[in-house]
Design a protein that fits this description.
Helices cover 38% and strands 18% of the residues. The longest helix is centred in the first third of the chain and has 19 residues. The protein is of the alpha/beta class. It has two domains: 199 residues, Rossmann fold (3-Layer(aba) Sandwich); 88 residues, UDP-galactose 4-epimerase, domain 1, CATH 3.90.25. The chain is globular.
């Protein structure tokens, strides 16, 4: 089948594009190669994805008129492209245009794909708010521009399902870790600081925050399982993550154990909008997709450390 993956040289998008290609699908990846983080890392991801047979198109979804630039014989769309995370360097306009306007343009394109079987929106646990421990039918209370605009984008996509324009679902992902994690994210920073004998910046009180740290391979298992299950997931919101919780402090200790050395910690003022707790409620994913993440935190960190050492 022909599959379009947006954000295809990003962390999770690149892994998903590779897996889909390995499963025998014809995959076209789109990315705007934003300088939000290292373009060298993005190019490294792009090279790896291309080696798996994925075509990469450098394209900004915010430009619109996508039908003039992308193939229309698409069976599935997996939409990862977004302004990610909670960042003091990102403006509201960054989140609005990358998360909402770009999604609207992709929806316009999807409506011109006559053989489209499913539009899979990639959402986030940040949609729930400061605590993300709930089933999918709980009213969201996002506490950041990121969460608000990702919720708005999710609803834009699901609107088309409700109107029976095309089948669509949204997957809310929880604290994904592993090889290719972005440089500003916790585990990549911890590993870098540990190897280079630098201090890791820890937001005040965040050492007690609880997270469903989920290995990227387990997340991709859930994402690709959508294929063939269009009828049962159409119109649905589905959480993907692990039910196992760890504190940030336990995450630090896991990296220290794998590296075999302590990491210096520098405490700084707490960050607004940061979630206090995430614990993925995956009852629905288990029921609909037979989803069953298995990778432990220590295994995940080991994979990520090995990747970091091999590439940096």
């Amino acid at each position: 089948m022909n599959i379009l993956v947006t954000g295809a040289v990003g962390f999770i998008g690149s892994h998903t594009a590779e897996r889909l290609s390995e499963l025998g699908h014809n995959v076209v990846g789109v990315d705007n190669f934003s300088d939000y983080y290292s373009l060298d890392l993005k190019q490294m991801n792009a090279n790896s994805v291309k080696e798996k047979g994925v075509e990469i198109i450098n394209l900004d979804l915010r430009e619109g008129n996508l039908a003039e630039k992308l193939p229309l014989d698409i069976d599935y769309i997996f939409h990862f492209a977004a302004q990610p995370g909670i960042s003091t360097t990102s403006t509201f306009e960054d989140y609005l245009t990358n998360n909402f306007i770009a999604t609207k343009h992709l929806i316009d394109f999807a409506q011109q794909c006559n053989k489209l079987k499913m539009f899979v929106n990639i959402g986030t646990s940040s949609i729930y708010g400061l605590e993300a421990t709930f089933p999918e039918d709980v009213a969201p209370k996002p506490a950041s521009f990121y969460g608000v605009t990702k919720l708005a984008a999710e609803q834009l996509v699901l609107q088309k399902s409700r109107e029976a324009i095309f089948k669509a679902c949204s997957l809310r992902l929880y604290s994904v870790i592993g090889p290719r994690e972005r440089p500003e994210k916790m585990y990549t920073k911890l590993i870098s600081c540990g190897i280079n004998n630098e201090a890791f910046t820890l937001y005040e009180g965040s050492d007690k925050h609880l997270r469903s740290f989920t290995y990227v391979g387990d997340i991709v298992d859930g994402i690709v399982s959508i294929i063939g299950n269009e009828a049962i997931v159409n119109g649905e919101i589905i959480n993907l993550g692990t039910e196992v919780e760890h504190t940030t402090q336990e995450g630090i200790e896991a990296v220290e154990k794998v590296l075999g050395k302590p990491i210096q910690i520098k405490i700084v003022e707490k960050r607004a909008g940061d979630q206090f707790r995430t614990k993925a409620n995956i009852d629905k994913a288990r029921k609909l997709l037979n989803y069953n993440p298995q990778t432990t935190l220590l295994e995940s960190v080991t994979h990520q450390v090995n990747w970091y050492k091999a590439n940096f």
